[in-house]
Structures are given as C-alpha cells and as structure tokens.
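[job 0412] stage=complex_fold ligand=Double cubane cluster status=START
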Amino acid sequence: MADYRDMWKDLGMDLETHDQLCEVLPMAFTDVYLSQKNRPENMGYYDFVVSEIHGVRPAELVEAQKKGTKVFGTFCIYVPDEVVFAADAIPTGLCGGSQFWVPGGEKVLPTNTCPLIKASVGARLDKTCPFFRIADMYIGETTCDGKKKAWEILGEDVPMHVMDLPQMKRRKDYKAWAEEIKELKGTIEEFTGNKVDSEKLSKSIKLINDKRRALARLNATRKNKNIPISGKDSLLISQIAFYDDPTRFTEMTNTLCDELDKRVEEGVSVFEEGTKRILLAGTPLAIPNWKIHNVVETSGGAVVCEEMCTGTRYFENLVDESKDNLDDQIDALADRYMNINCACFTPNEARIDDIKRLCKEYNVDGVIDVNLKFCNLYDTEGFLVERELKKAGIPVLGIETDYTDSDVQQLRTRIGAFIEMLEK
Ligand code: BJ8
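[job 0412] stage=complex_fold status=DONE, emitting structure tokens
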C-alpha cells in the first residue's frame, strides 16, 4: 500500500495498532485470493481496491470533504443510499468483518453480541479504520436489539441518525418506512445544507439501480453450468460495492461481466466439472470475512449464490425509475427497500421462498445456512429455513461461526462431509 500515514494521522487514528492490521490483511488476501487459479483478468481492479483498502477510497472521501461534501456511514442495506447521493453527499458502508476489531467492541458491549456489531463498534472506538473516522454522521437502524443499543454507544462519539425500521410488512409499515425515509432526507438536508429535489433523486435512483444491474449481471453468469468466476471473487465484489464510488464500480463490474460473458460462451469454468454448487444463506459477510467461501471452495464445492446482504438481498429488485415527484419517488424507495427479506421481519416466509427460488435459478446442489454467532434473528429463523428446505428436497447444512479462525478445522470437516454427501 502507498503511504497514507499523514492522512491516517490527520484522521486521529491509532497508527501503531493500525500497523498491526496492515500487516495481517495482505497475508490473508494472498492466501485466500491470489492463490486461486484461472481468475478473470478484470479481477485486477478489485485486487487493487483491497490492496489499498485503507488508502485510495478514504483519500477520495477526504478530498471530497475538503470541498465541503459530507460523508455518511451506514450499516444496513435498508438505508437508501439514493437519498444521501441526492443531497450531494456520499454514503459509505461501515460494517466490520474482521476479528481484529472485536476486542475493541467487547470493551463496551456484552461478549454475547454478534461479531459484526462488536467489530463495527471496535473499529470506531479503537480508531483503527479510516472509514469509521471519515464519516461525518452515522445512519443506524432498528433492525436487531444489538444494533439498536450499539447506536446509543456510538452516538456518544459521532453524530448518529437512527431510522426506525418496521418489523412487519403490512401496508401501514410501508407507509411508516416512507415516513422514515422522508425524515432521513430532512436530517441529511439540514446536515449538508443541500436540498434534495426530485431531479437529483431521480439521478441517484438511476445511479444505484445501475450498480444493482451490474451486480445482477455478474451473478447471472454464475447460473451457468460452467462457472466463470469463483464464489470468493464474487463475494469480494459484493463487499467492495458497499464503499466504492458507484459510477466507477458499475463501470468496472460491467467490464468484468464482458469478460465473464465471453468465458461463458467459450465454456470456461474456474471449477472442475461436477463440482457441487452451493448456495450460502444467512447473515452478511462483511469485508474481510471470507472464511466460509474459502472453506467451501477448498473442500470441493463452488459457492454459486449468496442469499445474504452481501449477495442477492443487496442487488435484487430495482427502484421504480418512472416517478417524477418527491413523494412518489420516496414511496418507490420504500417499496423497494421493504421488499428486502431480513430475519428482523415477522413473518418472513418470503425469505424462504427466495432461497427456494434461488436454488432453482442457480441450479444449486445444497444450501449452507450460515449464522454469525449470537445473531438470534437468523439463528431462530434457521429452524424454519432448514425445515422448509428439507421439505422441498434441498439438502441443507446449518452452521454457526464467528470471525476467529478457531473453528476452521471443524468447519472444514463438517462442510467437507456435507459436500461429500452431495456427491453420492
Ligand atoms: S438487512 S442482516 S444488514 S440487519 S448479524 S447485526 S441482524 S445480530 S447484519 Fe443485517 Fe440489515 Fe438484516 Fe442485512 Fe443484528 Fe444479526 Fe448481527 Fe445483523
């Protein structure tokens, strides 16, 4: 990575501790990613973004701030980026996916909190992630109890706006979410001093839809018999989508898709014929959490789809682009976002329908239902997911994991046995 120490210092980061993180990340990346064979050439862009993960994009955000642009940090895919961009501000995803940050979170949170929350809080309080330092305001949401309480702690350290996400999907809940989006718009307008009008919102709806289209195109290539890209690489792209500049990201992803389409035409696969096709369902995998993909793809399986927030929940369904006034556009945003099926909703049968549909679309041999330790929502919903998949004749394995490496061997044994069972 180039030298960004001055920027990190100006951001008030703990440089000494941050150096430790900078030492381990490239090793993990080399082991998991660069060791893969026959990767698409255009993965070079994403490799570069990761190699400069705490440099290039943070530097762009800092530059934008110098010109008066505000940066908003987000933690959940229900938060509409469109509204932030429409106020000439920049959103950036902040979910923490590294064990490195977990102890910092545990200083203020109960140990039995999910690692995603602990890492996110630790990254801020320990001052070891530039993105967490750069964001002028955080946008939280009331999805799970752990997050709700974490916002109160983070809110003592950084301006925080919390969106009240309904937990049912009745008509009145859609209306309530539209009201929350309006309130968010008001907060952002006040904080940035910029007005959101329907023209700007229309542009940002198109901007984010284009990103979704590119991701959908990428994922469509994974439906083929010959799989032109590994699950690991696809996951990396999803993770980068959360914080990269959307215009550039869309362009680079479409360029990659051109290469993947060509691979499909030529029958190129990164996996051997007969490799079992696995769908991962469950809790999100924030960067640099590549553990399960790595275990699956080094145990004779191919991850072909993620029914996750770092997967289909992020890019499926577009916002209606035909609306031309603010009220209708906000309703269209509410409609699209309320169609995401997170386990924080009840009832949530639509998520099970999604998984079954995805299994068909991606021609899946088996599902691994992944739960981040201490996520009660997905853990509990896992019972219904697994029961319904079994009923539908789809083999399923439920696993629980965290961000440590302590369970890798055990996961290898269980996932290896599952894949072997699929082969019989
Ligand atoms: S839409 S999955 S990003 S809430 S894993 S913090 S739910 S205890 S991340 Fe999530 Fe939005 Fe839902 Fe997606 Fe809580 Fe569970 Fe932790 Fe979670």
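The chain has a mean pLDDT of 97.
[job 0412] exit 0
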